[in-house]
Write a structure and sequence with these properties.
The chain is of the alpha+beta class and 104 residues long. It has one domain (8-91). It contains two helices and two strands, in the order ββαα. The chain has helices at 31-59, 65-92, and strands spanning 8-15, 21-26. α1 packs antiparallel against α2 (65-92). It is elongated, with a radius of gyration of 18 Å.
Amino acid sequence: MSPHTADVARLLPWTGPEGKPCYLVTDGEGYVSRVADNIESVQLGMATGLLGHVEDLLRDPSATPEQLRYVVARLAESLREVHRVARSRGARLRPASSDTDHPQ
């Protein structure tokens, strides 16, 4: 995942044993960064698949309250994961330079 800056604390897509956030100080290269990139990719792909399932379920007039509660619980889990990915990736973006940073 680029761009990376040297020694950035990256929010990882998993939590520690007590549910606390995990961070990796990294330049964006290395094994753990690649594992995190892969997990983020899987999480985003699963969210896409879940959205398709939700759309199908919402169109089904025979969907039961139990089915709907179950899918809402999965949506909450997925949203939590996608939000973590967005925060992690947003924190790793380089700040946009303004015109005042580079006078002509």
